[in-house]
């Protein structure tokens, strides 16, 4: 059985790195929350993270998250969908997750909205996933289509609460290029706030390999898997 006894120390080290990165650009580190990414780790990983103080858990697959939640009903954590969501999984996703951070098409937004409409007052906070890496394999709306998608979500999907943007940096070694992609997501957020006339406080960007750069560019949610839990072993 895998032990997760190092999660507390690993989280403390990540918090220190976040403080340093935030301090270097004059940001308040309290603006940055850690999303513990527990995909491919067993339920004990989620429990260890919660015991270390984690309050937000990110999972990539609906089925895997459902199974973990069933075993962890006593935990007081928010479950967030950070993987590509297929439309036929929307109903189960809404039963499993408190928020969906990977909305990247009007079809997906409309499906979420339609299911939410079945329940009076049901709402779901969402982020729009934007492809900031330019890599064709990545999901996310292209930056030039972010504003039209935002307008559609606001006008047609009244049950979705658009809170900000989500991005994955390019898988390269060039730190300047990674940082530039995070800066581009922040600028896009600022443009959308002006164009749509709404507040978009959340910027989910940064993973184990690049989160200090993301914090320097305004991230409010860093998604950390490997640096908290070690390599993914399968679940
Ligand atoms: C797996 C994953 C992460 C965590 O990646 P690490 O490199 O292990 O920190 C973050 N964001 C998304 C979207 C992921 O799929």
Automatic annotation (TrEMBL):
The modification N6-(pyridoxal phosphate)lysine is found at residue 39. Its cofactor is pyridoxal 5'-phosphate. It comes from the Bacteria. InterPro entries: Ala_racemase_N, PLP-binding_barrel, PyrdxlP_homeostasis. Residues 31-231 form the Alanine racemase N-terminal domain. Coiled coil: none annotated. Pfam families: Ala_racemase_N. Keywords: Pyridoxal phosphate. One of its GO terms (molecular function) is pyridoxal phosphate binding. NCBIfam families: YggS family pyridoxal phosphate-dependent enzyme. Belongs to the pyridoxal phosphate-binding protein YggS/PROSC family. Pyridoxal 5'-phosphate (PLP)-binding protein, which is involved in PLP homeostasis. This is Pyridoxal phosphate homeostasis protein. It comes from Thermanaerovibrio acidaminovorans (strain ATCC 49978 / DSM 6589 / Su883) (Selenomonas acidaminovorans).
């Amino acid at each position: 059985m895998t032990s997760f006894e190092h999660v507390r120390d690993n989280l403390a080290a990540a918090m220190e790195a976040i403080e340093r990165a935030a301090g270097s650009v004059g940001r308040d580190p309290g603006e940055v929350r850690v999303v513990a990414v527990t995909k491919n780790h067993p339920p004990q990983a989620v429990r260890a993270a919660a015991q270390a103080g984690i309050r937000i858990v990110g999972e990539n697959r609906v089925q895997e998250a459902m199974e973990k939640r069933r075993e962890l009903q006593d935990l007081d954590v928010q479950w967030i969908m950070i993987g590509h969501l297929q439309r036929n999984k929307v109903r189960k996703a809404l039963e499993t997750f408190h928020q969906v951070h990977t909305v990247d098409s009007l079809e997906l937004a409309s499906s979420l909205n339609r299911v939410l409409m079945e329940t009076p007052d049901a709402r779901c906070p969402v982020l729009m996933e934007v492809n900031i890496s330019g890599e064709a394999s990545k999901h996310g709306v292209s930056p030039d289509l972010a504003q039209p998608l935002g307008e559609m979500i606001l006008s047609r999907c009244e049950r979705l609460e658009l809170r900000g943007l989500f991005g994955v940096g390019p898988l390269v070694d060039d730190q300047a290029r990674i940082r530039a992609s995070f800066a581009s997501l922040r600028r896009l957020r600022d443009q959308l706030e002006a164009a749509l006339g709404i507040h978009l406080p959340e910027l989910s960007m940064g993973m184990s390999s690049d989160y200090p750069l993301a914090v320097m560019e305004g991230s409010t949610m860093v998604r950390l898997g490997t640096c908290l839990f070690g390599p993914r072993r399968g679940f």
